[in-house]
Amino acid sequence: MGGTFDPIHHGHLVAASEVAHRFDLDEVIFVPTGQPWQKSGRRVSPAEDRYLMTVIATASNPRFSVSRADVDRSKMTYTVDTLRDLHAQHPGAELYFITGADALASILTWQDWAELFELAKFVGVNRPGYELNIDHLADHLRGMPDDAVTMIEVPALAISSSECRRRAAEGRPVWYLVPDGVVQYISKRHLYVPAQAEGNGSVNRGPGGTTP
């Protein structure tokens, strides 16, 4: 499962669990992006922080693991590089790449996109009721297996990382939106604190407040 995970939240975890169940996957590998090319214009938390939050969030599920493949990459993160690395690490495995349906809709803009379908099957997860038009992909998917791209709805995806960041920046709680350990990590590291607050040395009580 690829993503920025800034921060990882329960929507990501529910989506991964649902896809693992539907496709009978042996393992779900979370791959936090290193230097995400799609988000080059936005401030992104340090890769090591995002990696550690993902480790904390997934630790209790034996089916989940976290890869440093992209975090340790010294250049921009492209999905094709991630999948090449995973193929090398897991020869013979059938790979499914799980990502947000909105991101998947733009797959034709991804680096070496034609090779991607040779490396993995793609699963786009989406929140119920969200209309996503992928008709523009039809011509490019013609001739491929029916399961080359699958879209599924996951109710918990009503949670978003951007909303979690906004709440944390405002000093509002993110309990129950992200795993407890991630709440504590965000607070300890003062992640998502506005730059002005960092500059003058003031820090609010953080995303956890005093109690759940």
UniProtKB/TrEMBL annotation:
Keywords: ATP-binding, NAD, Nucleotide-binding, Nucleotidyltransferase, Pyridine nucleotide biosynthesis, Transferase. It catalyses: nicotinate beta-D-ribonucleotide + ATP + H(+) = deamido-NAD(+) + diphosphate. Residues 1-167 form the Cytidyltransferase-like domain. GO terms for biological process: NAD+ biosynthetic process. The keyword Transferase applies. This is Probable nicotinate-nucleotide adenylyltransferase. Its EC number is 2.7.7.18. GO terms for molecular function: ATP binding; nicotinate-nucleotide adenylyltransferase activity. Catalyzes the reversible adenylation of nicotinate mononucleotide (NaMN) to nicotinic acid adenine dinucleotide (NaAD). It comes from Nocardia speluncae.
